[in-house]
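Sample 3 of the quickstart, ligand thiamine diphosphate:
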Amino acid sequence: MATDHETAAPAADLVETLARPSADEVTVLDAWWRANNYLTIGQIYLLANPLLREPLSSEQIKPRLLGHWGTSPGLSFVYAHASRLIQHTGQEMIYLAGPGHGGPALVAASYLEGTYTEIYPEVTQDVEGMRQLFRQFSSPGGIPSHVSVPTPGSIHEGGELGYVLVHAFGAVMDNPDLIALAVVGDGEAETGPLEGSWKGISFLNPTRDGAVLPILHLNGAKIAGPTVLGRKDPAEVRSLLEGHGYDVIEVTGDDLPGMHHRFAEALARSWAGIRGIQAAARGGGWDGVRPRWPMIVLRSPKGWTGPSVVDGVRVVGTWRSHQVPLAGIKGNDEHLRILEGWLRSYRPDELFDDGGRPTELVRRANPEGAYRMSGSPHANGGLLTVDLDLPDFREYALDVPRPAYLRAESTRRLGELMRDIYRRNPDRFRLFCPDETNSNRLGAVFEVSDRAFAERVTEDDVALSRNGRVMEVLSEHNCHGWLEGYTLTGRHGWFATYEAFAMVSASQTIQHSKWLEEADHLSWRANVPSLNILLTSTAWRNDHNGFSHQGPGLIQNVITQRGAVGRVYLPPDANTLLSVADHCLRSRSYVNLVVIDKQPQLQWLSIDDAIAHCTRGAGVWKWAGTDDGTADPDIVLASAGDVVTMETVAAASILRDRVPQLRTRVVNVVDLMAMMRPKDHPHGMDPMLFNELFTDHVDVVFAFHGYPGAIHQLVHGRPDADRFRVRGFIEEGTTTTPFDMVVRNKASRYHLVMDALNNARRTPPGASDLMAWCRQRLAEHQAYVVEHLQDMPDVRDWVLGDWAETG
Ligand SMILES: Cc1ncc(C[n+]2csc(CCOP(=O)(O)OP(=O)(O)O)c2C)c(N)n1
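Result:
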C-alpha cells in the first residue's frame, strides 16, 4: 500500500474536493458519526435490546455503568473525517487517542469498519453481535474501557495521560508514508510529558520521516473542572502552539452540519500542508528550515450530542459529561426516559438494518482493507518488523586474557556495535538518549550518524544535522515514548539513560510492560521488537554528581511486574555486555533492562567465557573462590552488578589469602530473573541448577547493584531463603570516591569479608584477626579519603594478579 511519498504536492482540485464535502458526503459522515455515538452509549449502558426494537426497560441497563462518554463524540467526529480523507487520498494513517478513556468510540469505529468482527468473529455485525459488543465493554471477562491492547488499530492506550504525541512521533520516524493523527486532550495537555512533547517537530525530517497531525481537543473540561487551555484566551493558546512551531488551524462550534464543513476544510488544509512540506523536501527543495507543521485546535463541547440538562443542571459542555452523564438509571424512570430519548436521537433505524448490520449509508464512510485506521498494519507493528542486520558482536570484544587485570569503559564497545548497526540498518534502528550519548561512552555512533535536529544548526555544533538519526532530547519522557512508538510500529532501538533518571520515565516503562504483557495474550498482535533500556552512569560511580544521581530503583519496578515481559541484565564487563546486547536486539516483545556503568572498570571474561556465562544467566566463577567442588562450600559469595562484582571478587581474594581453609564459592549473576523460581518467570533457574550454585543450606553473602530488598524478593520460595545476606544500595550516597560509595553502603570488600566470616558454616583459624584487620582497613580508608580526596592506592588500582591463572 505504499503511496507516492516521492511525488509532488497534492493537486489543488483534490484539496478543494476534500475541503468542500458535498451534501451527500456530509450525510454519510454524519451517519457514521451518529452510528458511532449510538454504539458508544450502548456500550456504556446496555445489556440487551441493542437496537431499541422495544421500549427500553431498566433490566436492560447494566448493573454498573463504567465508561467515559464526554470525550467520545469528539474522538469519533475526528475519526469519521479522517476516514473520508483516507478515502479520497489513499493516505496511510493511524489514529492515537490521547484521552484513551474514550475507548468505546474507538471500539465502535473498528466495529463499524468491520475489523472488530474480523479479529473477534464472535462479535458479529448483527443484533446478537451488537448485544455482545455492548455487554463485553467494561465488564468482567470482557474488554477494558480504554483504547487498550485489544482495540484494533491502537498503539496507544491513553490510560496514563500525557504520551500521545511521543508515541505518535516515534511511530512516524523512518516511516515516510505514515501520518499519525494524535488527538490531545486539553486535560492531558496539562501534563509534563505532553507539554514537553510538542517539541517532536524539532526532530522530524520531512524527507525520511512521516508526519504527526496533532488535534488539540479543547472540549474545555477534565474530570471535575475546567482545563487551563480551555479557559485561556484563544490568542494565548494560538501563540503557545505557534511558539512550538505549528501552523495552527482552529475549528470551533457545535452547529451541524456547519462543524462537518469547517472540520473537513481544516483537515484538508492540514493534509495539504503536510504533503506540501514532504513533497518539497523529497523533491530536494527543502531549505533546511524547520517546517511549520500544521495542527488543529478543535473546540467542541464535552459530551457533544449528549443530554444537555439532567436533574436541572447543565451536562453538555461541562465536566459532568466526563464519565456517565446519566447515572442511577435503574429505579429512576426520568433518567431511563432521557437515556432512551438520547439513544433514539441518533435515529438508529437509519444506521442499522433489520438484522443489525450497519446500513450502506454508514458503511460508505469506511475506507477499504488496510486503509481502515483500525486495520492499519502500522498499528500492529510486528507484522512489518524486519529483523536487524546485526554484525557479529564478537568482533567488538575486548581481549581479556585473564580476569580482573584490564580496565576499560565497557559501554564504549556497545557504542561501536551500535555504530555498525546504524550503518547496516539505515531505516530501522535508532538510539534515543537524553543528551548523554557521548557521556555514556556511546559516541561511536556519531561516526555514522549525526544527532537529529530540525532547528537552527550553528558552526559550533558537532554531529548535529537535519539528517541525523541519533535522537537526543533532554527529556526521558520523549526518548522513552519515541522508542515505544518506534518499536510498536515495528522498528528497533535503545533508550540509554543515566540510571537515576530512568525513574523520570519509570511509569512509561511500567505502562509499556503492561501493554506488551496484554499483547502476549492476543494471537492477532504480532510480536514487536523489544524495548531495550540501557541504564548507565550508575549509582555507584556518580562520583561527581552525588546523591541526586544515585538511584537504582527501576530494577525494582521491572522485577515486581507480573508476567514474563520484564528482563533485567547486569553484565559485569564489556564482553558480557556485548553478549547481552546482541540477545536483546534479537528478542521480541520484552522490556530489557541492562545495567552497567560507563567508567573504566575491571574486565573479567574473554568473549567465549562471556557468551557461556550469559547463556547460563548465572554461574560459579571457580577461579575466584577456593571451593574445588568436592564438598559444600562454607560460604557462597554472590554478586550481580559490575561494581559489586569487583568488591565480591576482591573479598574472595582476601579470604583466600588470609583464611585459606575457608571454602568460598563465588557466583556471578548476569540475568537477574534467573534468581526467580521457574514458575514465577521463564528465566527462573530450575531448582537443581539453583542448588548447584547456591546449595540449599549454605549461607550466601549477596552483593547487589540495586536495593537489597530486590534479591530477597527474587529468592522468595527458594530453599531457606533467609540465608541470603544481601548488601546493596541503601541510599547512602553523596559526591565521593568510588570506594567510599561501597563503604558507605556497607557493600565494600571488607564488609563482605566480615559477612562471610560471620555467616560461614565453619569459623576458620585466623577469622577474628581478619575481622579486626577489616575494621582497621575501613578506618584507614576513612582517614585516607578525607585527607587525600581519593581512594587508597591498593584499592584504587586493585587487580587480581596472576592468581586467577593458577587458582
Ligand atoms: C497521568 C494521569 N493523571 C490522571 C488521570 C485521571 N484522568 C482520567 S481522564 C482525566 C481528565 C482528562 O481530561 P482531557 O484530557 O481533557 O480528556 P477529555 O476531556 O477529552 O475527556 C483524568 C484527570 C489519568 N488518566 N492520567
